[in-house]
Amino acid sequence: MGKRNDAAAERGYRISRRAFLISSSAAALAACAPSTTGNAASSAAATTAAAAATAGPPLKLGQLLPFTKVYAELGNSMKRSTDLYLKLKGNKLANRPVTVIYEDEANDPQVGLAKTQKFIDQDKVDVMLGVVATPIAYAIRNAVDSAKMIYIDTNAGGNALTRTTNNCTPSCKSPYIFRTSFSSYQISEPIGEYMASKKGVKEVFTFVADYGFGTESQADFTTGFTKNGGKITGSLKAPLGSADFVPFVTQLKAQPTKDIYSFFSGADAVKYIQAWNQLGLPAAGYKMNGAGFLTEQDVLAVVKEQANGAITSLFWAVELDNPENKAFKDAYQKEYNLLPDVFAVQAWDGMQALDLALQATKGDTSDKQKLIAALEAVKFNSPRGAFEFDKDTHNPIQDMYMREVKTANGQTVNTISDKIGRVTDPGK
Amino acid sequence: MTLEDALQQALNGLSFGALLFILAAGLSLIFGMMDVVNLAHGAFYMLGAYVALSVTRATGSFWAALVVAPLALAALGLLVEPLLLRRLRGRHLDQVLITIGLSLVIADFIRLRDDWGWGATVRSLPFPAGLDRSVAIAGSDYPTYRLFVIAFGAGLALLLYVLHRRTRIGALVRAGVGDAEMLSALGVDTDRLFTVTFAIGAGLAGLAGVVAAPVFGLQPGMDVDALIYSLIVVVVGGLGSLSGAVAGSAVVGPADTFGKVLVPQFALALIFAIMALVLLFRPTGLLGRVRIGR
């Protein structure tokens, strides 16, 4: 082997590595870029109404929802609900024909902010709704606040969005922001109180997703549980979107506290519940407790009876018995041949609250203060029960329920086991 | 951590490593032969899992899916290489871009196929009958399917080793990795060899998708996760060699698992740190070697 060969070899290896590095950075770019290919929902004006002779000026709504990535199905569900509401209202709110512009938040705060700017500057929408992921809601908070754009959050549950916080970090309430979903306090703190005071549970071990919302849920649960004499014996966090939950569940099984409190949703919840069963935790006497999303329909449809016995708290369940829920379920099933989920309820209530407020202002959206006052005064019976906004925070005041997963006749559902009653976010 | 826990976690790490090996072997094979980093590898993995879902639903047999899905992906590979990649041979960046494009098309295709029972919701593939229970190991229950994954990964590594070292196609692959131009000059149809290699690589991605589906489930985004893990494995182990894929997955699987157990906040950072260290001190990977230029 001469010197020339060595040099050639060296060069060869360099070329390969360079090719590889180029490829890898391209991969990173691809991962960052919003995927919009073939997305029928994106940028599509989904409903355009022919203005009737007597109709008022057109009303433009901007819906920022995920249609790609991990939360795509949540976005689909919320879009179905919005479309159904408008269809039942003859595509008019307060006699104004409605156009909805759907944009994909792509589970990325930067993309969400860019699309919000588009709604404000380019589309000039009258009201904005949507957003599933809390980091995106936080990212767009200042943009909608300074543009005086009325925005109704229909999912993102981060506490700070409707609270007074130090230096508005990571976010804070705004007169222009309303929420028809929940704050993480509302779905986490009451179950802590309930377990300690009503169930007499002495010790709990917590296991949550390691991101803002999971951490908040864990802290709120801990507050409610320890305030009533309970003791947290330890805690564990799993990175969001962990591929494998068995290593974590192995750790749960290696510690003695039998009651586990968890916050996971979607695919994470599925993997967690499957690992829980694979490692035989039910037989070993462990009990699964959590915030409601741990056992929502998307999860139950996959894990089925593996989730039996799990206790969760939420403001709604398919099984909830009231006339509004029945009407909503029937209409949704008739239109889509599907059971609605909690995300559909939240989007539905967003439209309903807006509808009622617009009726109060006779369709006027130009006077923002008047519309804010009208939204603050809105009270109605939602599929979840009596709904109103807290005038101070714009977060909903709503009933919270304890639910237990049961399987009967091949159907696995959340049954209502107890009612906790009205829960208001403390606001700071 | 007690000894029993450590043993359980070691098994978890090994089974994760075995999955990573099945996944990374195809990526490494394609790169070694064709000098293409196939960024559609994660999408092939995802498609393999969804094909397995449909086959299992139709036939009720996981084992049928284990055969059909890799073959379906290999067939796709047989189309993709001559139709897309061959035209761009030698243009690395263009080839990589086209594989990214392909991965987006596949992921969106899966997302929009609600009518096939695919779509954007989370799906899961049940464990095959007989492997759906647990056995007592070190005083605690351990899922048998994970033991199967370890055995399957090890068996596949052995099979690939024999194919690679003892058969004619293996000799051609080794020759192609060494110097494809010279091989072509010797009268071997390298176009066909590249097509076959790409198909085998795609089939391996599909196989990984089937084996992983009962453990990890099926959902949007699984393609990106798989791609990132497999890239880390081949960088750590050494690009383009079978032994590199073995070494990389043997390091990354257990490191990821024990990272989650011991320092959960830094689990993902840990494997990236390992990758960075390997790149600093052994840029060709643990078992990589300096390659002859073309």
Quick description:
By secondary structure, chain A is of the alpha/beta class. Chain A contains twelve helices and 16 strands.
Molecular structure report:
The complex is a heterodimer of chains A (428) and B (294). Chain A is an alpha/beta fold and 428 residues long. Chain A has 2 domains: 45-182 and 321-394, Rossmann fold (3-Layer(aba) Sandwich), CATH 3.40.50.2300; 187-314 and 401-423, Response regulator (Rossmann fold, 3-Layer(aba) Sandwich), CATH 3.40.50. In chain A, 41% of the residues lie in helices and 23% in strands. In chain A, the strands form 2 sheets. In chain A, strands 8, 9, 10, 11, 12, 13, 14, 15 and 16 form a 9-stranded mixed beta sheet that branches. In chain A, strands 1, 2, 3, 4, 5, 6 and 7 form a 7-stranded mixed beta sheet that branches. In chain A, helix 3 (109-123) packs parallel to helix 4 (134-146). Residues 1-15 and 30-52 of chain A have low confidence and may be disordered. Chain B is mostly helical and 294 residues long. At the A-B interface, helix 1, helix 2, strand 9, helix 7 and helix 8 of A face helix 1, helix 4, strand 2, helix 8 and helix 9 of B.
Which features characterize this protein?
heterodimer; A: 428 residues; alpha/beta; Rossmann fold; 2 domains; nine-stranded mixed β-sheet; seven-stranded mixed β-sheet; disordered N terminus; B: 294 residues; mainly alpha; ABC transporter involved in vitamin B12 uptake, BtuC; two-stranded antiparallel sheet; 2 strands; 73% helix; globular
